[in-house]
Amino acid sequence: MSKIRILTDSLASQVAAGEVVERPAAVIRELVENSLDAGARHVTVEVQRGGTALIRVTDDGCGMEREDALLCIERHATSKIRTKEDLAAIQTFGFRGEALPSIASVCRFRLATRESHALSGTEVEINGGKLSAVKDYGGNHGTVIEARSLFYNVPARRKFLRTEATEYAHIEQQFRMHAIAHPEAAFTLIRDGAVAFHLPATSDLLARIRGLVGEELSSRLIEVKRQSHLGIDVWGFIGGPGLSRSSRQQQLTFLNGRPIESPAINYGLREGFHTTLMKGQYPVTFLFLEMEPQAFDINVHPAKKEVRFHDGFSVRDAVSRAISQALSSASKLPVGHTPSSPRLAVQAPPQQPVLALHSSPEPIARAASPYVPTPVLAARMPERVAAQISPVLPAPAPSAEAQVAPEPEVQEAKLKMPSFRIIGVVHKLYVLMESPEGLVLMDQHAAHERVNFEKMRRAMEKGGVPSQRLLMPLMLQTSPRDADLLKRNLEPLARLGIEAEPFGPNTFKIEALPTFLKTDDPLAWLDQVIEELQSLSSKTSALRLGEDMIATTVCRHSVKANDALAMPELMALLEDLFDCEMPYCCPHGRPTLIQMSLNELEKKFGRQAP
């Protein structure tokens, strides 16, 4: 007797449901995507008891006639694909024709739909995959789909659902992603009879994000202006310096309007945010990519969450370039200060001693005194600090005969430059400054790390990292794949201070290493270098490997928490900081500057209602 059997339609639908319907949030994903494909301008999602008791999705899309309403609940019935060529050029969200029959097989299912020009529509009821009723429907045009008692007939699946709160959290996350991906449509989420979100349609992406995450977070986002690279358009918003999360929950990426996950995009984000994130932290992103559908395959995951790119390296480059440019052009302090110019008019205190807010018995030097480098910092501060500095002082009132109108251009430039007035230093570490918006604090160690880091990085890019020749060369054995990778990167590795040359099959002779490398096991360190090379997107990106070494080095050679700086040194450090490409965080991702606005100070002192 034959051992192979053909599954019944009911059982086959339940098997498919195991791939498509993971939890209530997956049902909402499929139904909302169908609504968007139908041209809906308003989508309402209602849930009860975390989606296990009721899921109802209502839209004002095109609706369906009776024949289509009955066909759409059949397996592999779709209006999106006619030929195999259509599969390679998918522009819609749902296309397999599995979602509705799979959902209907594991719940009490109801579909009500009417076309806008039709006098009446169609209502279909299905219980556990079995058609129970078909009747006329006289409701509004569009489509309403209900899924009640999810997994009532599959108890083995139902017991794996989490608590109502957990399932609702997944539902809300799914709702947020679709609402952000399509701000042109209005979205409403109703939980147990109460409206959780009501988002009107808008053409302003930031306004949609603000409606979902709040003013505090949205005000700290940086715009990634739309740019094209190798046929890939990238735009959106990302978290500014100092804004990160311990998980990827707010690392949202979209491809052609679809929320997706992709290792290629994750690599691009990691490279773009390089030296601006603390270890173990993830960025906040609302990033959109747009490319031709022939350039990727969305059909590699049952839930269409993951995507496979035909050229993943181009995607990495496009994402990395967009993030890097947005961060380098950002002008926001971690708490929202927005200087109108990357240069600062640093204003010293008036010509009298300023009270030092640390334990040193010596007050901060008078602003008018010449700068004499302190011994502890003479070798640490950049060369330009060794010159005598003339602070910006309040100008005396000019005499009547000397009152000459300044050049219009110069006067306009000065008006645009914000000023920080240094007040003092707390615990020989945090520099207190007054800004037009409130109080600014600078971490002198983190700031000096950033200054030295960018200085050393520029030197590396121009001439390479100094190397130390080894008394005895090291022999590094690799796999054939890694050997090919090293051969293609010998030149950039040499600029990182790593002198290597092939020495037999899959073997390299290492003759020199960077001078500032501190390790007891250089071969293990080289294995890490190879691992990092595998994640980089191009040959030129291999220079990024040197940044980690530089970041460790500058930490040892930067001013420390107990190094007392004179006033001119503080002013020079602040000016050098704002000469950097990324002044708002150190190479390890910690903020260099934070600000407390005047409104926040007034709230803390009870001058404003909280």
Write the layout of secondary structure elements.
Elements: H1 9-20, H2 24-37, E1 42-48, E2 54-59, H3 66-71, H4 84-87, H5 99-104, E3 108-114, E4 121-127, E5 130-137, E6 142-148, H6 155-158, H7 164-181, E7 186-191, E8 194-199, H8 205-213, H9 215-218, E9 221-229, E10 232-239, E11 244-245, E12 251-255, E13 258-260, H10 263-272, E14 282-283, E15 285-290, E16 296-297, E17 308-309, H11 312-328, E18 345-347, H12 408-416, E19 419-426, E20 430-435, E21 438-443, H13 444-463, E22 467-477, H14 480-488, H15 490-495, E23 499-502, E24 507-514, H16 522-535, H17 544-556, H18 567-577, E25 593-597, H19 598-604
Parallel strand pairs: 1-7, 12-15, 18-19
Antiparallel strand pairs: 1-2, 2-6, 3-4, 3-6, 4-5, 7-8, 9-10, 10-15, 11-14, 12-13, 16-17, 19-20, 20-21, 21-25, 22-24, 23-24
